[in-house]
Amino acid sequence: MAHNLAFDSKGAMIAYTDREIPWHKLGTPMRGLQTVDDMLAAARANYNVTLTRVAAVGEHGEMLRHPDGSPVFIEDSRATVRHDSDGTFVGLATVGTRYNVHQNAEVTERALAIIGATRGDAVMDTVGVLDEGREFFASIDLGTLVIDPTGVNDRIARYLLVRNGHNGKVPITYANTDIRAVCKNTVVMGMNTAQRVFKARHTANADSAIEDAQRVLEISTEWAKNFRETAEQMLSVNVSPGSGRFDAVLNKVFPEKSGETDRQKQNRLNVNETVRALYGNERNAGGYGYNGWSVYNAVVEYLDHYRDAKPQERALTSMDENSWVSKTKLVAQAAVLSYV
Questions:
Q1: What is the mean pLDDT of residues 266-283?
Q2: Strands 14-17 and 124-130, how do they pair?
Q3: How far apart, in whole angstroms, are the C-alpha atoms of residue 187 and residue 182?
Q4: 8 A C-beta contact, residue 160 and residue 203
Q5: C-alpha angle 105-111-116 in degrees, rounded to nearest 5
Q6: What is the DSSP string of 127-169?
Q7: What does the pLDDT look like over 60-85, one tens digit per residue?
Q8: What is the per-residue pLDDT across 42-51, written as a single tens digit (0 to 9) for each?
Q9: How far apart (Å, rounded) are the C-alpha atoms in residues 289 and 154?
Q10: What are the start-end ranges of the H helices in 254-291?
Q11: Measured distance CA(268)–CA(274) in Å, rounded
């Protein structure tokens, strides 16, 4: 499955706040931001991972033993095992002898320390388990980035994305991103597009290394400044609904193709009309005025929610930074900024 979410007897092992339903519509919705303990419990992500020795087992399940009856162990390997609250075990992966287990709760609590929050603070937006417990992710709400606070007062949500692995491949990772993690694709997308990422390997000195992760948030203020400046530049571009400037932006974003058929032309015109209608709604010009920021967001809203495609395909292409959808959004931004 594209989401790679883990399942147990209660369903998908993910919990999320009800302010936005994930595209896959799986998991447990929670009312408002939650504490670490409540979100881990709702997602059943509070399982314990133990490190065990690796014994040799025959093809029929019998334990291989030495002549003295002692088990045959693979000395240069260890195994990670998920231990659920109901007493069941799930084998996860073989790892090296230097590997140290860091529980999901521990990694998330350290993330709270990085942002100056406590375990009892309600800041958790999503928590999920991937690949039968081999990976864990969480999104911590860092508040919002206010665009033009004296004007339209638009707000862009930002997150600290937390990622932890129990397979020897995924390091402990913290990243600043504006992408909400709800599945494997969004976790990867968030990490790939984050301006600042901190990683620590699962070794004995991981605890001391993670203390340096404070710089993730300190340096991320540069990202926030650049993002706000770009948004406010777009806000400064006046765009009347039926103006030639609006037409020019649409022609850049959805250009006429050479030799297009009558059907293709009609489809293009229909797309333009849909974007025009979205431009005037309360999420765009109706809330923030007739400007380039509203034009840009109308195009984004069309690509993410209204274009003719299955919901899952729209979600996946929107999360892929190399997709034509992501590239089209950049075209829209450049087209608006050309009038600054």
A1: 94
A2: antiparallel
A3: 7
A4: no
A5: 125
A6: EEEEGGGTEEEEEEEEEEEEESTTTT-EEEEEEEEEEEESSSS
A7: 888 889 999 888 888 889 999 999 98
A8: 999 999 999 9
A9: 11
A10: 262-279, 285-288
A11: 10
Q: How far apart are CA 252 and CA 333, in angstroms?
A: 10
Higher pLDDT, 2 or 324: 324
Say if residues 292 and 245 touch (Cβ distance below 8 Å). Answer: no
Structure tokens at 157: 């949500």
Query: Nearest Cα to 19, choosing from 145, 124, 160, 162?
Result: 124
Q: Taking the mean position of all CA atoms in its chain, how far away is CA 172?
A: 15
Cα 125 to Cα 118, 122, 142, 289, 292, distances in angstroms: 15, 9, 10, 30, 30
Cβ distance 156 to 177 under 8 Å?
no
What are 248's two structure tokens? 């020019």
Distance CA 340, CA 50 (A): 57
Residues 80, 92: Cα–Cα separation, whole Å? 5
